[in-house]
Amino acid sequence: MTGAAHAPALEARGLRRRLGITDAVAGLDLTVRPGELYGLVGPDGAGKTTALRLLVGLLVPDAGEARVDGVSVMSGGPALREALGYMPQQFSLYGDLSVAENMRFFADLFGLAPAIFRQREAELMQLTRLDRFRDRRASALSGGMYKKLALSCALLHRPRVLVLDEPTNGVDPVSRRELWDLLYQLVDEGLAVLLATPYMDEAARCHRVGLMYAGKLLAEDTPAALVKGFDDVTWLVHLSDAADPGARDAAEARLRERPEVRALSPQGGGLRVVVDRAGDAEFRRYFAAADAHWRLSPVAPDFEDVFLRLVTHAS
Amino acid sequence: MSPFLRRTRAMALKEFRHMARDPQVVLLALAMPLVLILVFGYGVSFDVEHVPLAVVDQDRTAESRAFARAFSAAGTFDVVATPDDPRAVEPLFRQSLARAALIIPEGFTRARARGEAATAQMLVDGSDNATATIALGYGDAIGLTLAQAELPRGLSAPLEARVRTMFNPSLRSAVFIVPGLIVLVLVIVSVMLTALTVAREYEQGSMEQLFSTPVGRLEIILGKLAPYFLLGLVQVLLVLVVGVTLFDVPLRGSVGLIFLAASIFLLGELTYGLVISIITRSQMVAAQIAAISTFLPALILSDFIFPIDNMPPPLRFVSSLLPPRYLVHALRSIMLRGNGLETIVSDLLPMAGFFAVMLLIATRRFRRTVA
Ligand SMILES: Nc1ncnc2c1ncn2[C@@H]1O[C@H](COP(=O)(O)OP(=O)(O)O)[C@@H](O)[C@H]1O
Ligand SMILES: [Mg+2]
User: Fold this and answer.
1) Percentage of chain A with pLDDT > 90?
2) pLDDT tens profile A160-200
3) How close, in Å, is residue A50 to chain B by CA atoms?
4) Is the Cβ atom of A47 under 6 angstroms away from ligand 1?
């Protein structure tokens, strides 16, 4: 097992899986190293959940392989399960069991000795501030508290690889921040974390990001490098009659028709527009002649622009 | 404790909590046996009483009148009409005024006095099959009793009843029903509950979490069986207690043996419920399959109500593949005849075989995947 030290903690090689008539995952390669926080980002239906399930061995791939510490997840027994911590997207604990009972149950399944369990339970309860809710049924927890409990259950056995499917979905901003602090702390301790999220702002907080769309990675890099490699121009279109939703829809429809417009999304009272660099001069000419109610101001491209541009290009 | 036992125990404890925190389930499980035994014991009693009887006494002697009285004395028959002409019987049947008729021909007493066989005729409305069969049986028995009572005097020849049935009228039906009822109660409640449990985990998403732990399929299955197994045994106890106290059901054999037989049956049926759950992964579908596929065999193919001996060979064959008839047979054998282990081994083995097959299918078909 000398190779194990150099092997990535989590690895996907040519993963494919068809669900019904959809190629939910259509050829996925990625690696997550120990101490790395990898974000799989994409809109709903991109195939993130399917990819994560393939990676933890809950789905059998049609092709390719998923590995944990260099071992195929399909061949791995209990040792592999102990290396992995997984938190599904949906509610997946027992709603009629209390916080403490859920934790105890998963600790038993992972074979934790009682003394070790008590120590880790206390640690996690304190870290997540769940101790006040020890005896509350899981179904009666708020979204944020529930996610913290699910995370605690996935962490009890000290996995080396943590796989989280939309961990902040349905979580209030304060709890969200706390969850992220917790994640950074875990990653600093050497855990490999793979998380799926539809939120671009969250993706920007990861060490590395894979942009997923229609079952494939469109791009993969650090968030900074992805933004840096962005070669288009981003404008913000202010609409003085923005209060009228009809006016915005009309503006959006007209701008979409322009060949140099690569992506378009609402922002505040206006529209954020990504324009092809080669067509930028043409766009400004068109704009000057277009509508007295519109005003144009330049903005720095961000991560979301990169993603929208790539998705438009792919589809 | 070995990891296997530890995980199985954790599963069992969790499952027990689900059960205990769902009061409706517990209530249903405990009320069901009570309701069923009361309904079957009192309501749909197979004991036939107060059958309206028409008596046509063409002999008109003291002896023939005594004979007719013997029929109405037992409470089985109520004399509702005494026409002179046997032809009046059919209209009475048609209007449902009478269900049975006793026709004592002229010369009945004279024949007996001469030591010849005296024949009275019993007519029964065959449209109500169960009552008819039983009424005939009673009539037969009353006639025989009367004859036997007179035999020691050596004066008269035995009376002859025209129709003989296999039914033993001295046997109270609650006695006969309790074993079948135990089977019915166990399949209705217990199989339904286990059929829901695995499907529920798939539907509620917890299976995804469960499969990401080292817990094995056999551990999940055994853990899920445990609480419902105990619940089933409580149900058996309930039926037995009510049967014995309220209906004087005899307990001639060993109670331990009753529970041994019920346990083997329960394990097989509960695991069958899990198989349904594992294959369908849907509570709705599992509940329907469980209800149909266990209730009907338990009711029809168990020898509970319909004698297996009278069934066409294909049905008889099907019944031999399913556990209910073996438990009914074993329980009757233990409770009513006081038989021991050696006579019920032939019932226990097929039930154990069913359990083994179900356990094999359950573990084989149980995939650690979610789609
Ligand atoms: N059980 C299923 N049967 C058929 N199609 C499915 C199933 N589950 C997911 N899909 C499809 O696969 C694609 C990817 O889904 P999913 O992995 O859940 O995406 P994401 O998690 O990124 O929202 C979607 O188009 C979805 O409709
Ligand atoms: Mg998803």
Assistant:
1) 57
2) 999 999 999 888 888 888 889 989 999 999 999 999 999 88
3) 10
4) yes
Q: Residue B202: left (phi > 0), alpha (psi -120 to 50), or beta? A: alpha
Chain A neighbors of B205, CB-CB under 8 A = 88, 90-92
Over residues A31-88, the pLDDT tens digits come to 999 999 999 999 999 999 999 999 999 999 999 999 999 999 988 788 889 999 999 9
Q: What is the mean pLDDT of residues B137-145?
A: 63
Q: Are B275 and B172 in contact (CB under 8 A)?
A: no
pLDDT of residue B48: 63
Identify the pLDDT of residue A101. Answer: 97
What fold, for A230-314? Answer: Alpha-Beta Plaits (3.30.70)
Q: Which residue has the higher pLDDT, B46 or B110?
A: B110
Token couple for B113 = 């006095």
Quick one: tokens of B313? Answer: 């060979």
Contact A19, B370 (CB under 8 A): no
Question: What's residue B127's pLDDT?
Answer: 64
Report the sign of the C-alpha dihedral through residues A142, A145, A148, A149, in that order: negative
pLDDT at B155: 39
Which atom from ligand 1 is nearest to the alpha carbon of B371?
1
Beta bridge partners of A197: A41
How does residue B154 score in pLDDT terms, banded at 50, 70 and 90? very low
A150 close to A123: Cβ distance less than 8 angstroms: no
Q: Does pLDDT of A271 surpass 60?
A: yes
CA distance B119 to A60: 80
Rounded to the nearest 10°, the torsion over CA A183, A189, A194, A196 is: 0
Q: Is A303 helix (H, G, I), strand (E, B) or coil?
A: helix
**What separation in angstroms does the CA of B367 have from each of A44, B106, B275, B362?**
27, 79, 12, 10
**Matching residue, tokens 């099907």:** B318
- A-facing residues of B in 189-228 (CB < 8 A) are 204-206, 208-215
- pLDDT confidence of residue B129: 57
Residue of chain B whose Cα is closest to the Cα of A89: B205
**pTM of the shown model:** 0.79
For residue A223, the CA-to-ligand 2 centroid distance in Å is 21
Give chain A's contact residues with B (Cβ, < 8 Å): 19, 53, 56-60, 77-78, 81-82, 84-86, 88, 90-97, 101, 104-106, 108-111, 150, 153-154
Class of the domain covering A10-227? alpha beta
Q: Is A45 in the pocket of ligand 1 (CB under 6 A)?
A: yes
Determine the pLDDT at residue B152.
Answer: 39
Domain ranges of chain A: 10-227, 230-314
Chain B hits for A57, CB-CB cut-off 8 Å, are 368-369
How far, in Å, from the CA of A163 to the mean position of ligand 1? Answer: 18
Structural domains present in chain B: 3-44+172-365 (no CATH), 51-149 (3.40.1710.10)
Is the Cβ atom of A90 under 6 angstroms away from ligand 1? no
- The verdict on B3 touching A (C-beta cutoff 8 Å) is yes
The answer, for B1 touching chain A at a CB cutoff of 8 Å, is no
Percentage, residues of chain B above pLDDT 90: 39
Q: How far apart are CA A230 and CA A240, in angstroms?
A: 29
Distance A165 CA to ligand 1 centre (A): 13
Selection from A289, A248, A287 nearest residue A265 by Cα:
A248
Q: Is the CB of A50 within 6 Å of ligand 1?
A: yes
Q: Is the CB of B371 under 6 A from ligand 1?
A: yes
Q: Are residues A88 and B208, on separate chains, in Cβ contact within 8 Å?
A: yes
Alpha-carbon torsion (B155, B161, B167, B169), positive or negative: negative
